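User: Predict MFS transporter's structure from this.
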Amino acid sequence: MYTGSKHDSHHGRAGLLQDGKDRHEWREVRGEHEEEGKRGGRKSVLKKGEPLSAQSRLLLAVSGFFAAGNALSGTFVNVYLWKAKQDFTLIGWFTLIHHLTMALTFWISGKWVKEHNKMNCLRAGVAVSALFYLIVLWFGESAAEYFVLLGVTQGLAAGFFWLAFNVVYFEVTDPDSRDRFNGWVGLIGSGVGMIAPWLSGMLIVRMGAVSGYRFIFTLSLVVFVVGVIVSFFLKKRKTTGTYEWMLTWRCLRQKDTAWRTVSAALVAQGCREGVFGFMIALLVYVHTGNEMKLGNFALISSAVSLVFFMLAGRLLKPRFRRMAMLIGVVMLVLIILPFFWKVSFTTLLIFGIGAAIFYPLYSIPMTTIVFDLIGKEEESAKLREEYIVMRELALNAGRLLGTAVFIAVISFASSPAVMNWLLLGIGSSPLAAYYFMRKAHAA
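Assistant:
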């Protein structure tokens, strides 16, 4: 159930934007918007209510196929591994390897995206996702024994896709359309996250475990292949400059840059994602023992998420971002508390609905603010690939930290009380993300 970040990336320079009035994008990126606008018969800088560009819509379509392929089977991969070993630690190691590989892929493939063909990197991400499910199909019920290979393959797929996606996303949007684009990404992700897992759960129950899992993994493979085909309609984008391998290190060493504080916020954001991305769905299955129940959980929580991502994407304005984030992070912590009463399908569903309502208030501003920071200055926009890599490294550092803490604790004790306190501790990390992002915003 990896979201990745959905949408995840890196950025650069000076202080965060106080509001939308001072924003200005790098001239070359702005030129691409203008060129696309002329072809579409309209101005490139979107005004309120104006539709997204054709390239933006195509990018949304590709991300939709990627989300659909993962939603069909991604929710059940950890369940599949759990049924083979029934070991939380193994699932933790699989996730840790995934995030470590993804971080290294971001850093290394930054050169590919910066100096060569970013669209091929995007396609490679979708293609390797298809390969992941081909490997799962090949190993079948013994797949859990190859969790290292599976974690590496899935990490490569996510790294290739999200690096290229975030660079292209930056190039096809501007500050006036970014919140709306992020809202659409969340809306599409929630839509496929609503239908696909429910459909998969129903198929597994009706067809039987062996045939059902094989069918949904095959279906995911086909969806990813279609996603690769659609990606060829995205135009090849310009490449300029030379990749700076050590920009992240140089940035973090500077005391007068907002990126140190922003990176701390991203680490805190990733900490929660690393564990909750796989643990909640797995807990639903562990406490119900039924894939259909997990599908129903995804259907209900994603339906709520769809509505609130749509509302947040339309209504969130720059001046409301800080307040929206504060409400979001506080509620994301409070919805964990029912677990201390009892962990059941009901309390997990309360958590899922609560997260669906309040996560958009937190995640959309976190993503938009950082991308706006990249585009604020000409120099940082020219280094957009490096800053996107830096963002992803920070997020994955947080995911690795959260997952490592999870493995360490579960290796010694896995009682319900320990699990609840562990989830509360890791789930409170958005408070730190808000603190650091607010501090950077005030700089």
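The chain has one domain: 53-237+246-442.
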